[in-house]
Every structure is written in C-alpha cells, then in structure tokens.
Amino acid sequence: MLGAPALALEWSDVAAAAHHALSAAGGAGTPGATVLSRAEAADIDAISAQIIPSDDTPGAHEAGVVFFIDHALATFFAPLAREFRTQLGLFQAACSALHPGKSFAALPAEQQIEFLKTMDSTPFFARMRLLTVLGMFAMPAYGGNRNNVGWALLGFEDQHVFEPPFGYYDRAYPGFESP
Amino acid sequence: MSLRKYRDSERVDFVIVGSGPAGGTIARELAQAGLSVVVLEQGQRLAPVNFEHDELKYWFNGGLCNHTTRNPQTFRSDPSHEAEQVSVRPALWYARTVGGSSAHYTANYWRFREIDFVERSVLGTIPGTGFADWPLTYAELEPYYTKVEWDVGVSGLAGVHPGEPPRTRPYPMPPLPVKSSGVLFERGARKLGLHPFPAPMVINSVPYRGRPACVHCGFCHGFACEVMAKASTLTTMLPEAEATGRCEVRPESYVVRIATDKRGLVTGVHYFDARKRERFQKARAVVLSANGAESPRLLLMSSGSRFPHGLGNSSGVVGKYLMFNYSTRTSAVFEHELNEFKSVQVTRILHDFYDSDPKRGFYGGGGIDARLGPQPAMWALRQADEGPAWGREYKARLRDFPRTMTISGHTTSLPVASNSVTLDPSLKDAWGMPAIRCTYQDHPDDLAMARFFVERGEEIAEAAGAVRVASAPVKAQNFSMHLLGTCRMGNDAATSVVDRHHRCHDVPNLFVCDGSSFVTSGRGQPTMTIQALAFRAGEHIARFAKRGEIPAAG
Question: What domain count does chain A have?
Fold first, then answer.
C-alpha cells in the first residue's frame, strides 16, 4: 500500500524539487517561479489524490501532480491562474465552513470524499480534474508523471519503436483473405 | 543544394498560399512544369527531428496548430445569435506549420466513390440544403487518386471489397501489419455479414521513395512523424518542388490580403513576415490553398470597391456551405490486451454503409474503422463518458487502456448555407486582422446518420466479443478539423466560387484548391481527395500558364 501520508512532503521541498525538475527538463516549457502558496499546494495535492487515488499502485500524489499544476499555472495555464486561485479560495472557504479550523488536506479521506461529492460539478473541480489528468499522463518533463507512474497505471509503454505482434489478438492472425 | 530565393519585388509566376496537401502538391506540379513559385505558409518550418511525442504540447497547447490566443475565433450555432469567443480550442482547428494538415493527420487515405460526385442527380434535391453534383466525375479524378498513391505513397490492398471504385493500378505498398483492433473488427464485422478490409493509409509499410517504413511508434493522430514514414508535403512534395530550383517555401508568412488592379486581376499578396512586418509579394497569379477556414476568410478580407462582398464572391457563397463530417466513438473493452497505443491508428475499415439508403428515412452514409483513439491524457479524460469521473472506480477503469479499442464511424455532413465562415464584426487576431466567426449547426439528417453509425459500431463490438461497450452520445458539433465546402466548385458562376479547374469565376488569375473546393462532404476522410484535386488542378493550371491562358495584371 502506498499511503499518501507516508510520502507527504513539505511544500518547500516540493517547490524546490519542482524547480529542479523543470530546470533539468529544458525545452518542455519555461522553468517558472512557483505560483502556489504552501497551503494552496497542500490542498491541491490532496484534491488530486482523491481524483486519482493511491491504492496498490501510485496515484496523483506519487506522480507529483501538484508540481505539474504549479508549473502549469506559471506557464501555459497562466492566463487562467488568477481565476483558478480565486476558485480554489472559494473551495477552501466552503470546506472550512463545514469543518471549522481544518484545511481540506487535513481532513480524513472519507470526509474529503464526502466534501468533493458536493463540489464535483463546479468549474473549479472540472479544472482540477483536467490538470490532474494532464499531470498524471503528460510527459514527466512537465513536472508530473514522475518515474512514468501515470503511464505505468495505463499500461502505456514509452518507446519509439514497436514490432508486431502488438497485442494478444494479432499474434496468430493468418493474413487477410477475401471471404 | 542551395535553395532558390525570390525578392518580394520579383514578379513570380505563382504565389501559393498554404503548404499542405493542396498547396504543397500544386507547388510541385507547377515548379516541375517550369514555372516560378513562392509558397507562403503562416506556420514555422520544422524538421522531422523537431517532432515529439508530447501530448500536452500538441493536443492541449496547440503545438502545431492555430491557437485561441494568436488566432482567436467566435462560434455560434444559431445564425440569429451573436457569436461568442471560444477559449479552449479553436472551433475550426487546423495545422499551422509547413506541411499543413499532412504534418499531423491520422493518414486515412480513402478514395471517394463514383456516387460522391453525382449524388444530387441520383437522390434528388434535399430541401434546405445546397446539395449538388460536383462539376467533375470520379472517372476524371481517378488518374489523380492513382498519382497520390504512387507519387506520395499509400499502403493498402486493392480488389478486396465490394463497391470498391474502379482503379487503374494496385497500391504501391502492401497494407501495414494488422493490429489487434483490426483482427477483432474483422472478426466481428464478418460475423455480421459485413466486408472489412485493410485500411488504405498514406504511411509507408515498406521503404518507399527515399523514406523509411513505419516503426509503429503510435503517434500519428495529431502528431507529426519523426521518421517520415507518414507522408507529409513537408517531406514529399515540397522538397521535390524545391529541387527544381524554381520554388521557394517561405514559412512564417501570414497572408492577409490578395491585391487586385483596376481590371480586377490579382497582382500579388500582402503578408506579415516572422517579425510582423508587412510585405508584398508580386505574382502573375495566385493559388489559394489555405484550408477551408482560411481560404474563404482571405477572400472576404480582400474586399474592395470592385469586390464589396469579398474577392471572388459575386455569387455570395464564399464561406458558405461549411461541412465538418461526424466521427462517432464507441469504446470496446476486451478480455486480453490489444495495446492499441502501438503502431498506426487504423488497420481495418469497412464501407458497407457507404451509400445513402432512402429506406433509412434520412440522407447519409459513411465508413467505419477500429483504432486506438486518443493518446493517454485525452483517453483518460474521456473515460468520464461512461462512469464516475474521479476516485477509485475511475482509476480502476483507467487500467483498461491496453484492453480497449475505439470503433469510429465517419459520416456525411449536408451543405447548409447558414453553416459558414464569416469575419467577426469586432474580434481581431494578434495581427489586427478580423477573426473567424464560425456558424454551425448539424443538419438533423447528419445527427441521425451518426446515431445509425453508433448502433453499427456497437453491433460490431459485441460480435467481436467485447466484454464492455459504451458509446459517446451523438451531439451537435461545435468544432472540427475537417473544414470543407466554403469555396465550392461548380459550373455556374451564380452558385459557386471556382470552376471545374479551380479557377475563380470572377478573377481569371486566381485559383482556389483545398477542402473549401468540396461540393459534398464525402464519407469523413477528405484529405486523399483534397490531394487528388490538387494534382489535377496543378496539371491544368500549369497547362493554362504555358498556353498563355492566365491573364496577368499589367
């Protein structure tokens, strides 16, 4: 079991690692300053980890989706960053109205899921879902999909050359014959 | 080899606007015929080594394409409403790079059939539409389909399905190796008494004309080929045009106006270069191959006192009769792995439902194929079509990726006058030029046809033994990569923009040839026909030029 808490990092570590990853990536976007505050990053990490949870295989948390989102907000998603953070603020306010004194990230998993069920038709959730999926399955150079864990989940192989047979059903194909 | 360069002030025989399947092909035909040619392409010129497997860049951030920030557009479904600016992706989406759509297409290269050119005569009129015959027949275009197959390189297998149109030669290359989706599709379709056959693809199955065979990397659909196995005009027609020493391909050259003299003849084109400086290239004649969105836009932007409603638009049909085609999507999960992410998208198709059948109660027809569908991120996003969009159950479904294939039906769109490309009255692009306003509402028959194809796709999936089948709901389209019909061909100058040789009825030294030339939509795979039309247009235009039958401005 890869429990999310076991891998919890401090946001400062996250930011430093993200910056390093992006600088090292080269070509795949501009290494930018980190956009998210520590509290924002913790909640985004927690939301993404409910969208694609960690179970017997890594989820969004292990994929580093939060690094990807921070990078996105600093680069290609920048035009929408202000609106996204405003939406996040409303999400956080709604959460603490229900659970005073606790951030979304600090809630037990069951309460996180219950709360998300009330929020999953909001534009903010739609954006979070889009960014989580992109962070899970885009090239690792963008800061997410660390160690290709997203591609491993899908069974996608990152190779430039394949040879037939490609799958189970084309192994014993006798060749095309007109009926 | 040092490439030929022309000065702006040098009057070349032809300026061609656009470097895709149409423009790139016409460039080669004219240059090889001894004429001087400048190809102006708004996008960059990249080399195959620049092409990446970067889904985020190509599918979400407009890597090779027009982009909503630089090239904004507005959209409306109802022509009586004000159009709204689109934000996520352009309504009319096209490759903005040297090679045009041939840089990033899926590479399905189906010929049209005889019926496509004469459907109006066979079926009669359809009220509320501009349904019409083409001004040419399949027989006239056949030699040029063959030319595409042999000069460019199409792999396939001839003579293996009923209804195949007549052909003068077989394919030059055998079909690409079958994938699991192809085997299952073939199995399911045959159980239903249908006639699946190897898909014709403009991808090398063996080395051909100096380019290598496909390495089955799996990144065709929306990506450019880094090994050049998928034919793009970037790696086929344009280098051959340049090798004549008479053709210059000038990238990052964005044409914004076609200039005319007092007699109404074209004198050249105004364009912005890479540094946004306005320049003017002189030419004896202009060929517009900028695609079904940009060709009509450019004619509309070239209005003047002599052409108040746009250049070449005395008929009023420039920009009208826009057609998208429809693509259905049925997802089929099987017991064992298919690994559809490997190799080309499509290896088996069928055309059993190609013809329109009055018994169905609506017009239309199409073809069906089996394929991967989108790459990982887009695939994962789409899994919300059939269940929870997040959480454990969602994650579990993502694991079906290697065991899943998509069955797609590719269908007709009727030409409806109000479906159109016009200039937005207020929105401007990054160069200050009027943005495209797209108006589009599928004809009810088009949506009925799509639903019919969803049912056929589901039947094939079930017959193939799928353990789970789910289809995306058929709904009104608000974007497309198939941009057809907006400068339609015809014999009558009152109802069409160009004649049967692609010459503009109103302007004798202006030609338009690309998806905009289509009179009807075909069955969802237009590019083979765009390129065949381009070979034919190139031959005729070269002949006109040599015989002095293209008047030039004084």
Answer: 1
Contact B467, B338 (CB under 8 A): no
Contact B182 A170 (CB under 8 A): yes
Q: Which residues in chain B have Cβ-Cβ distances shorter than 8 Å to A157? A: 339, 341-342
Give yes or no for A176 touching B (CB within 8 A).
yes
Which two tokens mark B188?
A: 């399911």
Tell whether A114 is covered by a domain: yes
* Residue burial B68-93, b: 16+ Cβ < 10 Å; e: rest: beebbbbbbbeeeeebeebeebbbbb
For A122, list phi and psi in degrees, rounded to 5.
-85, 155
The token duo for A142 is 């963008």
Cβ of B160 and A153 within 8 Å? no
What does pTM read for this prediction?
Answer: 0.94
For B267, the enclosing helix (H) or strand (E) is: strand B266-272
DSSP class per residue in B334-357: -SS---TTSS-S-SEEE-TT-S--
Which helix (H) or strand (E) is B37 found in, with range?
strand B37-40
Rg (alpha carbons) of chain A, rounded to whole number:
19
Q: Which residues from chain A sit within 8 angstroms of residue B389, using beta carbons?
A: 120, 129
Does some domain include residue A27?
A: yes
Select the residue of B61, B184, B217 nearest A76 (Cβ to Cβ).
Answer: B61
The CATH number that applies at residue B15 is 3.50.50.60
Quick check: B482 and B323 in contact, CB under 8 A? yes
Residue B381 in domain: no
Q: Could you report the per-residue pLDDT of B360-409, keeping only the tens digit for each?
A: 999 999 999 999 988 999 999 998 777 899 999 999 999 999 999 999 99
Q: For the segment A92-144, what is each residue's pLDDT rounded down to a tens digit?
A: 999 999 999 999 999 999 999 999 999 999 999 999 999 999 999 999 999 99
Residue B281 main-chain phi, psi, to 5 deg:
-100, 120
- Give the gap in angstroms from C-alpha A48 to the nearest C-alpha of chain B: 9
A90 found inside a domain: yes
* Cβ-based neighbours of B193, under 8 Å, separated by 6 or more: none
Whether ipTM tops 0.90, in short, is yes
